[in-house]
Each structure stands twice: as C-alpha cells, then as structure tokens.
Amino acid sequence: xxxxxxxxxxxxxxxxxxxxxxxxxxxxxxxxxxxxxxxxxxxxxxxxxxxxxxxxxxxxxxxxxxxxxxxxxxxxxxxxxxxxxxxxxxxxxxxxxxxxxxxxxxxxxxxxxxxxxxxxxxxxxxxxxxxxxxxxxxxxxxxxxxxxxxxxxxxxxxxxxxxxxxxxxxxxxxxxxxxxxxxxxxxxxxxxxxxxxxxxxxxxxxxxxxxxxxxxxxxxxxxxxxxxxxxxxxxxxxxxxxxxxxxxxxxxxxxxxxxxxxxxxxxxxxxxxxxxxxxxxxxxxxxxxxxxxxxxxxxxxxxxxxxxxxxxxxxxxxxxxxxxxxxxxxxxxxxxxxxxxxxxxxxxxxxxxxxxxxxxxxxxxxxxxxxxxxxxxxxxxxxxxxxxxxxxxxxxxxxxxxxxxxxxxxxxxxxxxxxxxxxxxxxxxxxxxxxxxxxxxxxxxxxxxxxxxxxxxxxxxxxxxxxxxxxxxxxxxxxxxxxxxxxxxxxxxxxxxxxxxxxxxxxxxxxxxxxxxxxxxxxxxxxxxxxxxxxxxxxxxxxxxxxxxxxxxxxxxxxxxxxxxxxxxxxxxxxxxxxxxxxxxxxxxxxxxxxxxxxxxxxxxxxxxxxxxxxxxxxxxxxxxxxxxxxxxxxxxxxxxxxxxxxxxxxxxxxxxxxxxxxxxxxxxxxxxxxxxxxxxxxxxxxxxxxxxxxxxxxxxxxxxxxxxxxxxxxxxxxxxxxxxxxxxxxxxxxxxxxxxxxxxxxxxxxxxxxxxxxxxxxxxxxxxxxxxxxxxxxxxxxxxxxxxx
Length: 790
Known about the structure:
Coiled coil: 379-442
GO molecular function: ATP binding; identical protein binding; non-membrane spanning protein tyrosine kinase activity
Family: Belongs to the CpsD/CapB family. Belongs to the etk/wzc family.
Low-confidence stretches: 1-7, 59-78, 362-372
Mean pLDDT: 80
CATH topology of the largest domain: Rossmann fold
Number of helices: 22
Protein name: non-specific protein-tyrosine kinase
Membrane topology: Multi-pass membrane protein
Oligomer: single chain
Strand order of the largest sheet: 15-22-21-16-20-17-19-18
CATH class of the largest domain: Alpha Beta
C-alpha cells in the first residue's frame, strides 16, 4: 500500500469543504447552544465573591508581668503552624459554630415572572430578609428539611402551602440528626398568615412582613436547611490561604448570591475563631485556679482551728514563754514540717496531673500546666510538644482519613510524648516520696528530743508548730494563686481580624453573559465539527482522488460523475450529461494510453458487487462505439449476469453456450441499439464458470474477435468474491479497476495492490465511479460548469 508523505498532514481545504457541506448542522447546533446559553444565563443566580483577612500573630501577647512569670517558669514560646490554622478555619466544627450563631436555617426564594418559568421554575431569586413573609420554625419538633416548600399567595391574608417530593429527610433540630427518610410527601394546605400549623412532619407559622407587599398569585418557596447541609454548602464556598508564602496573614474567601448573608458568615467565622483561641489559652489558667482554690478551701478551716487551739492552750495553762532550747527544736521541727507539707503538696499536684494525663482529659489537652508550679524544664517542654502535636493532628484531620500515614505518624509521636510525660511525672512523685521519708526521719529525731520536755511546754510547741505550718502553707498557695490569676487576667489572643468581610468588585463571578454566549457558540460549532471528524475517521470508504492516491500506487485514469440510477445507458440517452462527459474523458485518456501500443482487449473489474463495474463497462463500450470504433462487449460475469438491465438480450445463448456447445460466433453475438456496439451475453448460467473460462475456446474466441472489432471489452467478475478475473487476466491488454465513491472500502484494495506491487498484473488503471461533485472539493469547480451539461 502506498505511503504518501502527506498522508498525516491536515488537508485544510478538504476539511473546510466537509464542514461547508454540512453547514446546516453547524447552524442548528449553534442555535441550540446559544439557546441553552441564554437559559443558563437567565436561570443562574449571580454569585459574588467576598474576602476578609485575619492575622495569626506570634503568640507574644499579654502583660509584662505575665511574660516574666512565663520566663521564670521556663515556658518556651510556641510557634504557629499556618497550615494547621488554615485547616482549623475550614473544619466542619468551626463552620458549624459560626452557623449556630447565625439564622440561616430557613432560606427564602421567589419565582420570577419570566416566560421560561412557564416550563419549570428556572429563574429563581434568593431572598434574604426581603421576603413578604417570615417562617417562625418550631425547632423542638421534627421538620422536613432540604426540600423546597412552595408558598402560593391567594390574597393578602391567605396562602397555600405545597410539597411534592420523594425521599424527604425528617430532621430533629435538638440533636441535629436525620430521624428517617419519608419515601413520598404530597402535601397541599390552605392557611392564614399568623396561623400555626403542626403535624408529625412540620411545625411552623408564616407571618406577614413589611418588606415586600405580597401579590396574589405570586409563587415563592422556602427551604428548611439542616445544619449538615449548611455546613457542606459553606465549606464548599469557603477558601482560606496565606496572603504570601511566609506571611501570617490569612485571606478568607467565600462565594454566594446574597452579599449580606456571606459577609455575616465570614465575620462570624473569624470572630468564633478568635474567641476559641482565647478560650483555649484560658483553659490552662482556669484549671490551675480550680486546683489551688480547692486546696485553699481546706486550709482556711485548719488555720482558724489551729490558732484558736493555741490561744486556748496558752490561756488555760498560763504559758507565755518557752526556753531557748525548746524554741530551737520546735523551730527546726516547724521548718521540717513545712518542708514536708510543701513536698506533700507537690506530690499531690503531680499525682493530680498524672491522673488527668492517663485519663486523657483535663490538663492533658491544655496548652501548658507550668503556671501551676511545675519546676521541671524537661516536663514543661514535653507539655509544649504534646500541645503542638495535638494542634497538628487537628489540622490534618480536616481532610485526612484515619489511615493517612502522616496522621498515624503524628498519633505515634503523641503517644510517645504522653509516655515521656507520664514517666517524668512518676519520677517526680517517687522523688517527692523519698524526700518526704527523709524529712519524716529527721522529724522523728527531733520529736524524740522534745519528749523529754515538760508536757505543757511540749503541747504548746506542738500547737505553735502546727499553726505556723498551716500558715506558711496557706501563704504559699495564696502566692501561687496570685501568679496564676495574673497570667489568666493578662492573657490575650494573638489572632486579630485585620479586614472585615466585603464584596470583591461589583460583577458576579459565575454569570458573564458575553463569555457564556461565546462559549456556547464555540460548543455549538465544536459538536458538529467533532461529529463530522468522528464520522470521517470511522468511514473507511474512498472519499476522493487524493484519498485513493494515499492507499495505492496504481495510476488513476478518470472519474464517472454521479447520476440517476434509472439511466443505465447515460452516454446514449443524454450525450450532454455529466456522466456522458465523464466516459468521453475516460475514453480519450484510454485511447491516448493505447496510441502507441497494440492494446485491443480491455477488462473491467472491481472489489465487490455494487461498485458499478458493469455500468462502466456498458457505457464505456457505448462511448467508444459512438466515436466510430467497432466494439464488442463480453459478459464474463456468468455467476451474476446483469446485461438484461441494459440491453434486450436473448438469454438462451451466449458466452457459456459458445464455450461448451461450440455454437457459432455469429449466433452468440447480439446487436444493440448503439451503432458499432455488439454484445456477447453470458448465456445460460453454468455450474463451473471458472473452468469454462480456462478452456482454449476462450483464447480462440478472443483471437477471432480481434480480427472483427477494434476493441474487445470484457465485464469480469469482482476479484473480491470469485477467481474468474485471475483466469481472464492473462488475456487482457488493459485492466480498469472500478471503485465507487463513498462505497468501496479501502481495505478491499489490498489484493489488487499486492498484484500490482508484485508486477503480476500489467497496464492497470483506477476508475472512480459515482463521484458527486457537490460532495468533494477536488472536483468542486465542475458544479459551476453544469450549464455545459443538458
């Protein structure tokens, strides 16, 4: 098969002609696409974009006193992960908190007066605080959510409520969960404004508003939104990103049709985010104050009782002074008991924190417990690491699943850090116990020394030491409480709203009519163009002369114009027709090729039946005879004879009878209405046509005809079906291979190409039949010469 170097190049003229011939498809699709664009523009609610900015800060806020306290306690500054903050802002929980502060549960819509709404409610406008009615929803009962509930105004005081929907969620606003899905809801009720309505699925009251005067016959509808649907809607429209790669300023963007509604949402979201941050920072201080207050509550009664007991003992026993030695011993004893009390307090606090960490609540989720008095820098750093890991985990859980590798890694680091904290706290508890045991031993020695003192003096010293111990412990806790209160009172969030929400520009971002109409027009032109290209690639038939030249090296002789199927003898019946001119051109080209050679026998064949092989052989023979040459036409296709459609023939004798019965030549040759043209029909259909054509009688017949006629034309069978052509091929001087425009499959030429390339066939030429000049640009100029034809 021929491999033309331009085979893969784009023939722009060819494609332009193909597109031009199907201009009506482009017109229809363009009109439909523009109509669809018009419907889209009219039915799409304009969506605007809104923007606000938020500063994350550097967590160095608070008073100087609080900062000094944090430095004394060796609390390191904790940096902010911008990615984590972005995740928190976009999280479902944060969006839910913001929505719970707003009244977006009921959304109101108005059906516009437009001819498109006669088919369906296509053009709908959302109303926010502008509807002629207000829905007072009873959230203590079940409601039908996320479906349109139509409101048809009948007059100024009466309206009609309509619902027609399948698979409707029944929602509980107390738990914010779907109770069940109702398969079908068909509801129609006439009510008055201000009249409550309640059933098992709905509980509401519609009240008139003064914003818009309701017009009878107007249609509205409202949707009761579940909290989950509101969260999904706002999350889909929300985007958060830093203003620059290294910046701590976040840009929050949202999209929606109602400016006031989206601006309120963005502002509320930022306010809730800032409030949550401060609440998180205050959580640690509140826990510390709760613990110290619980200790102080018990010490207040103990201090009062100890002072009262000392005063009573002095009064009853009239004791004013104690000797110096006793004072020294009791002073040591008092110091040791104070040391033991401090150690017991520290141990109790360590055990309290350890218990909370093991249970996974309380201070384990706080930012840092150091303001309460933990003096271990290692433990403080571990708490900071745990807080950072928890924050990073919250950021990843916004979009990641439980199987996410990074999430698993963070959870592993959290578990490891918690284990290290538990180990450190256990060491501190054990260390405190050792110190307590040591102090107890030293106290025991002093108490044994004091046992020798007089009973009254010993009792007095006991009461004094107990009172001093409780007093010192009380002062110590009061000092720690003051430190914690200062840190809590001066604590402030490092998040700040920089720019409140505002609308970006004045034009909607979704509906741009010019762009949409242009896009619709391009789509309308692209669809038929794609269809034509697809059909052309799927169509494997021969489309024209260039197409034929790309798949074969066989020389091209000419084309036969398209004509009426009923006009079998076109060259005789209408000599000024395009078909007659086509055969005249082929005859001239053929005579030019045979001018210098003795070519007398011409054979016509094709790939398959239906390509016009017989039509071409009959009309070509007629044209040659009309030019003054004596021509005989032989019907060698004895399996499917068709000469009877062209000439009145006697079927009782012909080629088969000559080859088998030895019938004389003058009896098998039949005259036709065309001067100088005789035919030899096939005669009776034989059972072995291939064997007959191989007989010496066939060679004898051709030699005899050459002496009586200028040209012998043989209508041979198609080579794609039977083998008779290969039998006759050795007798042929010129071979004409007929292909039909938009009919012959390109793969059918494989066999004839192999014969030609292997030089097993000689003097072969291609003829294209039934070429419609209006369907190919190669001969498009000929349609302008139609006035030359009759």
